[in-house]
Specification:
It comes from Pseudomonas protegens (strain DSM 19095 / LMG 27888 / CFBP 6595 / CHA0). This is Protein activator of alkane oxidation PraB. By secondary structure, the chain is mainly beta. The chain has a single domain, classed as Beta Barrel (Porin). It has no helices and 13 strands. The strands form two sheets. It has an eight-stranded antiparallel β-barrel. Strands 1-13 form a two-stranded antiparallel sheet. A hairpin with a 3-residue loop joins β11 and β12. The chain is elongated, with a radius of gyration of 15 Å.
Length: 147
C-alpha cells in the first residue's frame, strides 16, 4: 500500500542511512511496576523509496532499567501517512528482569515535525504486554523531511 507522504533525507539523494543521536524515550512496563522510566535511545536504519526501516535501537541511561531491554521485531517500518503523522510497525522489547516484560509487537502512531525535523508522539501509545511508550523524541541525522 502506498503512503500519502514520503520520508526523505534532505539534499540531493533522498535515500540512505540515518541515526537519531540524542533521542529520548519514556516507557512503562511490568519491569518498572508501571512507573515511567526515561532513557536515551538511538535508532539506526535506512530510508528507501519514501519509507524508513529502523534496523537497530540502542537504549541507555542512568536508570538501571535503561540497560536491560532487548529490542524485538526489527526491522521496524516507519511510514508517513501525512506530512505530520505516521506509524511504526513491529515495535517491541523484552526485559528478562523480574517481573519480566514482553512488549509488542505493536504498531504505534507517531507525529512528525518538518519545522524541527523530529519524530515524537502526540499521545502515549499502548503496546501489547502491559506496556506503553509515553514520550518519544528522536531527530534523525542527516536531516530528514516528510514530503
Amino acid at each position: 500500500m502506498a503512503s500519502a507522504a514520503s520520508i526523505a533525507i534532505d539534499g540531493a539523494n533522498p535515500d540512505g542511512p540515518f541515526t537519531t543521536p540524542g533521542g529520548t524515550i519514556t516507557v512503562r512496563s511490568p519491569s518498572s511496576f508501571n512507573q515511567p522510566v526515561t532513557c536515551n535511545i538511538n535508532f539506526s536504519g535506512n530510508i528507501a523509496g519514501g519509507v524508513a526501516s529502523i534496523t537497530g535501537a540502542t537504549v541507555s541511561g542512568s536508570n538501571a532499567l535503561c540497560n536491560l531491554p532487548k529490542i524485538t521485531g526489527l526491522p521496524w517500518t516507519l511510514s508517513a501517512s501525512s506530512t505530520t503523522a505516521g506509524t511504526v510497525t513491529n515495535v517491541g522489547y523484552t526485559i528478562s528482569f523480574f517481573p519480566a516484560t514482553n512488549c509488542g509487537p505493536t504498531t504505534i502512531n507517531v507525529a512528525w515535525s518538518n519545522v524541527t525535523h523530529s519524530l515524537s508522539l502526540s499521545t502515549p501509545q499502548t503496546l501489547s504486554g502491559g506496556c506503553s511508550v509515553d514520550v518519544l523524541n528522536a531527530k534523525p541525522s542527516p536531516q530528514v523531511s516528510v514530503i
